[in-house]
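Every protein is a chain of amino acids, and every chain bends into a shape of its own. The fold becomes a row of whole numbers, each drawn from a learned catalogue of backbone shapes. The protein below has been through that process, and both of its lines are reproduced in full.
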Amino acid sequence: MNRIRRRRLAGFGAALRLPVRVGYRTGRWAAVALLAAVAVSPSLAGPGPEAKAASGPGSSRFEPEWSWPLSPAPTVQRFFQPPAQRWLPGHRGVDLPAEPGTAVLSPEAGTVVFAGWVVNRPVLTVDLGSGVLASFEPVQAVKADGTKVSEGEVIGHVGAPAEPGHCPASCLHWGVRVHGNYVNPLNYVTDRRPSILLPLE
């Protein structure tokens, strides 16, 4: 090992406060230990995404991406239960308790792309852009196909429960598809971030 390489290793060892023996046999192991220390050292590797999120402005405050389709924010009567396979039964949305005639609001700005009947229930679908569709049923639409709507705008009213009823009582079924795949609508209106432990003051 030449003198330049010895000096570099010795310098890094001093910065990390690690004893480094730079010899022919130990030099290789010192280099391996040094690289491992750099990989785990916060001061050298820099903060990861979690640290940046935790230290960013307003990071402790949750800002929902969308608004709820009902006001005030409702409870959830039945949660999202995706099937193991697309063709198997499941619950591809959430059920929100609501009486017939309750106003249904667009959760985000978009365009109404369907307002009609599917089998025995009225359905309304809003295209929110980027391949995201939000559908509601049973809903008597007040907006026609092709109508642009803003976030929080009334797009319809909860219709009478279909027969047989989807819910034990009257409800609004809300489904969200991203590029044709159903996802949990609550991801857009509730804080789904994992809980973290904070130090006691």
Q: What stands out?
A: The chain has a mean pLDDT of 76. The chain is about 20% helix and 25% strand. The domain at 94-188 is CATH 2.70.70.10 (Glucose Permease (Domain IIA)).
